[in-house]
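Q: My collaborator sent me two sequences in one message, no labels, and asked for predicted structures for both. Can we handle them in order? The first one she listed is below.
A: Yes, handling them in the order given. First sequence, followed by its C-alpha cells:
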Amino acid sequence: MQIQIEARPLGPLKVLPYLPSARLAILEGLNGIGKTLAIRLLQVCTTGVTPYRPESQAWASFCSGLGPFSVTVSGLRSNSTIKWVADSTTWLGRDDVSELFDHISIDGRSSTIKDIRQLLVVHRLAGDETLIETLAQQADGAESIVTRWASSVHVPISRLETLAGEVLHTLGEWTVERHSQILQDMEAAETSFSQASHAAEMAIDKVRQLGTAVDLLRRLEQFRRTAPNLRQQIEAVEVIIRNHKVELERLQTRIVALAEEAARRRPILLELRNAQRTLKRNRLYLSSAVDTASSLAAELELAPTREALEAAVFAVRQQIDELTGRQISMHAAPAMRDLLDDVSRKLLDGEGRGLSDQIALDDPELDLQLTVSEVRVGIGTRRVQLEGQPPPPEARAVVEQLEDARSRLERLKAFEEGMDSVDRYRRLVGKNEERVDRALPAANPQVLAELQQLEARRRVIDNELLELATERAVLCQQLSILGGEAPDVIESRLTALLSDLDLARDALPTASAKAQEAEGKARLALGEARQRLAAIRRDVARAEADVKRTTRSLGASGALRWIGKALSSTRLPSDGAPLREQLEVIGHAHVTIAAVIERLGKHRTQHAAVASALRGIARQLRGQDAEAVMYVAELERWFGDQFSEWFNSESVRKELLPDADDQISVDVRQMEVRWLEKGRERSRPLEAFSSGEQAFAYTRARLGVLDQEIAKAPNRLIVLDEFGAFIAHDRLSVLVDYLRKRAADHPEDQVLVILPLSHDYASEAGSSVGKPRENLEHLAKQIEAQRFAVRVLAA
C-alpha cells in the first residue's frame, strides 16, 4: 500500500511525506523528521481515537502543531483508495475525533471511520519503552477504552434506566404485602369507626337523658310556680260554662215549648219550630267541634286559631324537609341503594342489547376504563355492601326527630279537619239563625216578643260558651306546656331518671354541660373516624382498580407487553382473577424490573470502578499507590494472564528464559516473572530485564497477539518504532529474521521497522566494494536528499 501525507505544520513539528510501500522495510532517519508523528497521525485517521491521553501535553502539542493536512492511502488489497482531510487545531479538547474530519472518502465516496476500520488497521509497537512502562501503557490503553465505552453507553443505559423506571411506575405501587396492610388498616378503621359510633351514640343518649331530666326539673319548678293558678282559672271557666249550659238548656226548653205551642195554634209557625230544632242540633255539633278542636289545639300546644294552625303547619313542613336532607347526608345508604338499583337495571338492559364490552367509565386521571359489564358488577358489589348498613347514631337521632315531626304533622292535619268542622257548623248555625229570624214574625205579638227575647239571650249565651271554650283551651294549652302531669308524677319520673344516671339533683346542670361537651367531642371523633374510613376505602378501591389496570396492561399489546413475555414462566392472570393472584404476578414483575434497574445502575458504576482499577494498576506498575479498591485483584490476574502469554511465546522463551521447564507466569502485584527450572521455582523482577530484553520480549509478544486476532482487517500496517537504541544488534537481527519468515505467512500485513540513524553510510561506502558499496551509496543518497533512508527487505 502507498501512504502519502501532505501537511503544513504550524510550528516546529515535522511529518514524513510518505511511508514506504513494502511488505517488510526498515526506515532509518535523523531525529526530528516526523517519523513517529506520521505513525500517530495514521492511528488517528484509522481509529478516530487519540493515541495520547486527552489531557496530556503531547496531545495538545499534536493538535496545535500539525494544522491542516490530508492523508491518502492507495494500493490496498481491494484496490481501494482512502483519503482524509482535516485540521488538527479543531481537535483540541476532544478524545474522539471521528466526527471532526472535514472529509473522509473511499474511492471518492463519502465514508466514516467505521468504514475505514473494515479496510485498514494501523498498529504501532514502541521500542522506546521499558517492559514495565509497556505493561503500564497497556493498562492505560485499557482504561481509555473502558472510559470511551462507558461514555458511549452512558446515554443508552440512562435511557434504559428511565424506561425501566417508567415501567416500574406503570406497574404501580401495590404489592401483596401493601394490599394486605391496607386491608388491615381498613379493618382497623372500621373497628375505630364502630367504637366511635358507639361512643357517640352513648354520648348522645346521655345528653338526651340529661336533657329530659333538666326539662322535668324545669317543668316541676314551673308547675309549682304556675300550675295552681292555671288550674284555678280553668275551674272558674268550667263553672261559668256549666252555669251557662244550665241556663242555655232552660232557654232552649222554653223556646221549643213556645214554638210547639205556637205551631199547634197556627200551623204556619211549624217552620219556626223546625228551624229552632235544626239550630239547636247544629249548635250542639258546633259546640262539640269547638271542644274537639280546642282539645287538639291544647295537645299541639297551639292557640285554637287558623293563624296558629297555618304557622305550625309551615314550620313542621320546613322541619321535615331539613331533617330529611340531614338524614340523607348522614345515612345515604337507603338513597344510594335506590340509585344503584336504578342504574343497575339500566346497565343490565344495555348488556341485553349487546353493549357489555363498551367502555362506560373513562377516567384519564386514574387511567381507568371500565366496560358496561364491569361497572354493573362493581355497582352490584357496592349494593351488597350497603345492604343492612346501620345508620350512624346522629342519623338515628334525626330519624327519631323526623318521626316526631311527621306525627305532629298528622295531628296538625287532624286539628285542621277539626277547624274545618268548626267553620262548617258555624256557617250552618248562621244559616239556621237566619231561618229562625225569618220565621219569628209569623208568631202572634205576645209570643213573638218572648221568643225574640229568649232567642237573643240564647244567642248571647251560645257565643259566650264558644268564647269560654276557646279560653279554656288556651288555659289548658298553657297547662300542657308544663307537661300536663301532676307534680307527684313529674317528681317520680325525675327521681327515677336521676337514679339511673347516678346523679344528684344539684349536680344536674354541671353534668348536663359536661355531657354536651363530651357529645361534641364524640361527634368530632366520629367524623374523623368516618373520614379515615372513607379515605381508606377509597384507597382500597383505587388499589383494586390500579391492579386490574396493570394486569390488563401486562396481557395487552403495548409498552408492557415485553414484561408479560419476560414472565412467561408465570401464568398471567386476567383482571377478573382473585386480586391476590394478580398482585403476586405484579410483585414478580416489580422484583424483575427493580433488579434490572439495580443491574443497570451497577453496570454504569462498574465502568467507573473498572477504569479506576485500570488506572490503579498503571500507577502500581509505575511504583505508585494504586488508590483504587474494586476490581484491582481481578484485573491484576487478567493482566497477569495476558502478560504471561507474551512470555510463553516460543521465541521469547528461547531468547529470555531458555531453561524454563514449564509455563512462565507474571505476577503483576509483585511485578515479577516466575517459572520452574529443573524442578526448582525461580523468579525474576520485571525491572531486572535489560531494556533490550524487554523490548524484544514485548515486540515478539505483541506480534504474537496480533497474529491471533480472529477478525483481521484485509490491510494492516504494523510499525515497530524506535527499536534500534534498545535492542542489541544480535537480537535485532534475530527479530528481522523472524519478521522475514512471518511476512510470508501474513500477506495482509505491511511491516515497517523505524530506527534512528546510527551509521555514516557515505563513509562506510568508501571502505566497501561491489554490491555492498552500491547499497551503502544508495542509502547515503536517500539520507542526503530526504534525511531518511528505506531498506526494503520483502517487497
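Q: And the one she listed second?
A: Here it is, processed independently of the first:
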Amino acid sequence: MRLPSEFSAALAAGRTVLTPNTELAAALFDAAEREQRALGLEFWATPRVRDFGSWLREQQERAHLEDAKVLKPISDIEERELWRQVIESSLFSQNLLEVGVAARAARRARRLMLEYAIPWNKVLDEATDEAQAFYAWHREFEARCRSLALSPPALLPPSLKSGEILAWIDSPGWRPVVRQWLTRCAQRIAPDVQIAGAGEVLHFDCGEAELAHLARSVRERLQADPLFRAWVCVPDLARRREAAAVVFDAELAPGRFALSSAAPRAAYALAGGSPLGQHASVRAVIDFLDAANGDVSFAGFSALLRAPWLQESEGDAQAAALLELELRERGPYQATLSEWLKLCEEFRRFRPLPPVTAAVHLSGALATLAASASAKRMSEWIPLWLEAFKLGPWVLRRRWSSVEFQAAERLRELLTALARADGFFGTQSRAAAGRLLKRAVGEVSFQAQTGVPPVWVSGQLLDPFLNYSALFVCGMSSAQWPPPPQPAALLPVRLQRAYGVLGSDSVTQLANAEALQQAWLQRAPLCVFSFSDSLDGQRAQASALLAKSAADVAMPILRPHWRRFPAPALEEIPDHRAPAFDTVRERTHGIATLKAQSSCAFRGFAESRLDAQRLELPVPGFNRRERGELVHAALEYVWSRLKDHATLMRLEPGAAKLLLEEAARRAIATVCRRRNPGKRWRLREQPRLEHLLGKWLDVERERSPFRVVQLEEGGEAATFGGLPFRVRIDRQDELEDGARVLIDYKTGVALADWRGERPDNPQLPVYALLRPERLVAVAYGRVNAAESRFVFEAERGNIFKAADREQPRKGAMEGEPSFAALIERWHTRIEAIASGFAAGDAAVAPTATACQNCPLPGLCRIQWFPDGGSSDE
C-alpha cells in the first residue's frame, strides 16, 4: 500500500499533518512507519501525524503556560462535570429523566454552534422549550468557566507554535469553520485518485452471516497475498462489537479459542474503542471502590472475592470458592466490605479452610482507604487510591496483558487530570470521589494501541483516505443508506438545516453518502457493499445509491462459523446404573435421599452421591429454611412448657402472650447463631412469629385431649434396603387411650404427598416405620399465615378436631383396613426405594411432578429422553 505522494512530501518537509479524527491519524502514522521499514531504514524521524482534537488541546495548554493572561483550557472531565452541575441546578432539571444524557446533548449542541458558526441570537429567536433551556445552560456554563478562570472549549488554536508548519488531510470529516481556518493556515493534502474500482452488492439473511462472510473473505485474501490490506466498515460497530470480535477471531485469530495463552497476534483490529470502565484492570478498581464506599450485596462481594485478578494460584481460587460456599449458607444478604471481611475470617476459623489470599489483599487495600475517612481534594484522594490499588485489585499486575496495562495507564492519565482539577472539584467525601471516578471511566473511550494490522474494522462512515486492496461496507440497505436524518438534540432542526449541519436532513445525508461512496470506490480495486434482513425476518432491499456503482448482486448462502457444519450424529449409550452404594465411604442424606430417589432415581443419585445441590443465595431477612427452623424451635419451647392439651386450654391470654414472646425470642436467637440477617430483620420477625404461633395454638385447642411425649429429639438411625438413614421426628403425641400420633411441622405448602408407590415425600411413612407401636395417625402440622391446619393420615376421626365425626375421606389409608396394614404397605414401598438407591439405580425416570422444581435439568438432560422419561422405558 503506497502512501499518497503529497503526504510523504509533507512529512519529509517536517510538517505536522492534521487529520479530522484519531482513527485516520493512527492509520496514516502506521502506513508512514511501514513505508520507512520497506525502504530498509533502521532509524527515521517519528512521523508528525496528529488528530486535530489532540493537537488543538496541546496548543491551548502551551499558550496558557507561555502567557499567564491566557486562561487555562478546561479539561474533558471538567467540562463533562460542569455541564452536569449546570443542568442539575437549573429550573429545567426537574423535567429530566437523566441529567447525564442532557449534559452530553448540551455539550454536542454547543460544539455544533462553533463548528458551523451559528449565531446565538438565532437560537434565541426560536421559541421552543429546548432552545430556551439550552441557551440558559450555555450562559450559565460560560459564567462558571469565567468564575473558575477556565477557558471554555474552543474550536481553533489561540496561536501557532513558532516554527511549526502544518498540513491537513482533505476529508469530508472537517467541519466548515475548521476547514476554512486550515485552508488559510496549512497545506492541503489530497488523496491519490485511482481508477474507480468494481463494486459488489451482497445480500444476507441475517447480520451474523454478513459478518461471517466479511471475516472469511478477508482471511482467504490475506492467505493468498501477505501484502493484502482491507478496510471494513460496520456502521453499528458499537452495538455489535462483541459479535464482530467473535467472528473475526474465529477466522483471523483462532488462538483466542484455544486453551493455550500463547496466541499469535491477531491480523485485525477493531477501531473506536469502548468505555474505559469495561476493561478488566479498570473494572477491578471501580468494583473495589464501589464495595469500599457503601453496603455490598452478597452477589457483589462474591464476585469480588472470586475475582481472577485477586487469585495467585488455582489453590487460592479453590479456597475462595470454599469460603464463598460458607458465606452463602451463613452470610447476610448485605453488609459493608469491612463486615464481609470480618465474616470471612470468622467463618474460616469456624470451618477449617486454607488462607484466602483474595480476602487478605482486600483487607490491606481497605485499611489504606479507611486510614483517612475525612473529605479531601482529589489530589489527596488519588495517592491513597493508587496505594490501595497496588495492595488490592492491582496486586497481581505482573500477569496483565498488554491491553490491561494500557487501560491502567489510561486510568492513571485520567487520575492525573482529576488531580489537576482541585480548583474545580474542591473537597470530596470518599464516596463522592469514587462516584466521580466511576462516571469518568464510563464516559471516556479507550482503545489499546496495537498498531494498524492488515485488516482494520471501523465503526465510522468516513473516507479512509489511504488506498487499500479491498473495502467492505456493511449496512447498505435502503433503510440504512443513505443514513436517515439524525438532527442534534436541543438545537432547533430548522436552524440546523439552514446552516447545513451534517445529518440534520435528508438532503445533507444524501450528499454526504454520495461523496463517501465515490471516495470508497476510488480507494480500492474491490469494494464490497453488503446488507442483511432485519431480526424480525423482514426482507431488506439494497440501497438505490448502490445501483450507480455496483457491478452485480450476489446472494451467498454462507453461515456464521458456528453454523457452518451440520451437527454430528451422537452415539447414545444408555447407562442408568451407578456403582452400588459404598456404606464405608459414602453417607446418605436421610429422608432427603429417599425423597429424591422416589421422585427420580437420577436425582437421588446426583444429590446424595454426587452432592449436586442447588447453591444457596442469601436473601434479605430470614430465608425459607430459616423460617422453618424458627417455627420448629419456637414450638419446641412452647410444648416443653405446656406439655399437654389440658394446660393449653387453661392458659390465660396474658400468660400465652408472654410464652409466645419468649418462644419467638429464643427461636430467633438460636437461628441467628448460625446466620444473623441484622437487627432490623430480627425486630420484624418477632411479631410475625408470635402471630403465627398464636394461630397455630388456636388449631391445637380444637383437638381431642393429648399429651406431648417427645419433642425434636436427636436423630435416630433407621435401616432400609440395608442402608442407614438418620431421621429426626419433630413431635410425638399420646392420646387419652394410649394411642400415638406423629407430627412433622411444615411452614410452606403441605399436601398428602406420601401416597402412591413412588410418593413425592416418604417422610411420614418413614416416621411410622420407626414408631409403629400403638400408632393411629401421622400428620403434617401446616403452620402457615394463610391457613394453619393438620394434613393427616388416620385410622379414626376425632383426633385432630374434636368436633369431627368418623367419616371416610377420599384415598384415606390407601384402602387398607387398619393403620398397621398401611404401615406394612409403607414398609414394602420404602424398602423398594432404598434398595434401588443402594443398588445404584440412576435412571432418568421422573414422576409427573418431579421436574417442576428440580434444579438438575442441565445435568440429567431430561429433554433428550422421549416422553420425559428414561430412554429405555
